[in-house]
Design a protein that fits this description.
3 helices, about 15% strand
Length: about 100
Amino acid sequence: MDHLNVPNLVRAVKTGARLIYVITENERYTEGIVAQAAAEAGVGEAFWVWTCTDGFVRGGSAVPDTVGALAALDFALAQPEPALFLMKDLAAFWHDSPFL
């Protein structure tokens, strides 16, 4: 996806994209786009944001034991319902774990 915007992201989510890798210089703007797309795609209640300092957070509440990148991915994969996960700076941890 060359240009991240709400319609393109909604289309990708609705067509079953499992992973979308975004490089951005403006995390706040990108998070806003992803949040809007989650709402329009019907998964707004299941929109999670991950950072290596807080783990997964949704609606201001952190999920215990999701600070580690591998634990966070395990949590995301275990969700039974459709959801959208924004994982900030995940690529920084790829070199530390062959399991990622």
